[in-house]
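Hi again,

Forgot to attach this to my earlier email, sorry! This is the prediction with adenosine-5'-diphosphate bound. I've pasted everything inline since the attachment limit keeps bouncing my files.
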Amino acid sequence: STPVATFCALLRAARMGLLVKGGNVLESLGEVRVAAFDKTGTITRGEFSIKDFLVVRDKVQMSQLLYWVSSIESKSSHPMAAALVEYAQSKSIQPKPEDVTETCIYHGEGIYGAINGKHIYIGNERIMARSSCRQQAGHRETDGLKGVSVGLVICDGDLVGKFSLSDTCRTGAAEAILQLRSMGIKSVMLTGDSEAAAKHAQEQLGGVLEELHSGLLPEDKVRLIRGLQARHGATLMVGDGMNDAPALAAADVGVSMGLSGSAAAIETSHATLMSGDVLRVPKAVRLGRRTRRTIA
Ligand code: ADP
Ligand code: MG
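C-alpha cells for the complex follow:
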C-alpha cells in the first residue's frame, strides 16, 4: 500500500470528524459486514429524564431517599446518574458526595454506596440480587412506571425506592442504519439496559435494527461480538461507555463516541467519532471501501 494514499485517507477521515488510530483501521472499516451498536449514549443521546420517582417504604422519606441517591450517583459518570442528581436538585435536595464513605461501581448493574452508616444499592434487577435484598426478584416492582428504563434503590437489604427514566434516539441514527443496510451491512443493538428500553428505542427508529440484545454485561457484549464475527465476518462495534470497552477492543473495528464517551472506550477503540453524529459511521465505511480500492 502507498503511504501517501493512506495518509490522504486519514486526513479525509479527520476532516469528517473521525480520528483513526492508523491506516489499517480505515482498510478494516471497508471490510465490515455487520455493525453492533450500544444503545445508551450511542443510538440514544444518553440524556435521561426521570419519569417517576417513588418511595416504596413508608419508613423512608422522599427527601432522605433523594439525598442518598443523588449523593451516591454524584460518584458515577453513568448517564442515568446525571439525570438522578439533576432530579434531586430540581426538588431542592443538594447532593453531598462528601458524605459518601465508600462506593463500588457494577457495570451493567448500578452502583453501591455507603452513606451515614447505610448501605445503599442503586440500579437494575441484577443489583437487587447483589444487594441480597430481602424482597424476592424485581418483577412486579417495575409495574406501572411510565419510563422504559427502570431503577431500584435498596437500603440495608430493603427495597426503599424505585424510579423510571427515558432517553431519546439521536437524530440520524435510523438513517445511518438504513445507509449501512443499503451497503449490505446489517445492524444489531447490544445494551445493558432492559428489554423494554431496547424495544422502545427500536420503535423510535422505525424497526431498522435486525437484532436486539438486552440486559448485557460487558463480557456478554464481547461474546456477542465474537458470535457476529463467526457468522458474518468483519464486525464493527460503536459504543461510548466503560461497559463497551472490552467489546470495542474485540471488534474488528471499534468506534467510540468522542464527545460524551468514557476514557476507557476512547482508549480501547480503533477510531473515535468527534461528535454525536452517527451518520458519520456509514460515511467512514464508504471512505474505508474507497481506501481499499486505492491502495490495493
Ligand atoms: P448500556 O449498555 O445501555 O450503555 P450500561 O451497561 O451502562 O448500559 O448499564 C446497564 C444498566 O445498568 C442500566 O440500564 C441501569 O439499569 C444500570 N445502571 C448502570 N449504572 C447505573 C447507575 N449509576 N445508576 C443506576 N443504574 C445504573
Ligand atoms: Mg452506552
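The domain at 49-166 is CATH 3.40.1110.10 (Calcium-transporting ATPase, cytoplasmic domain N). The chain has two domains: 3-45+169-295, 49-166.

That should be everything now.

G.
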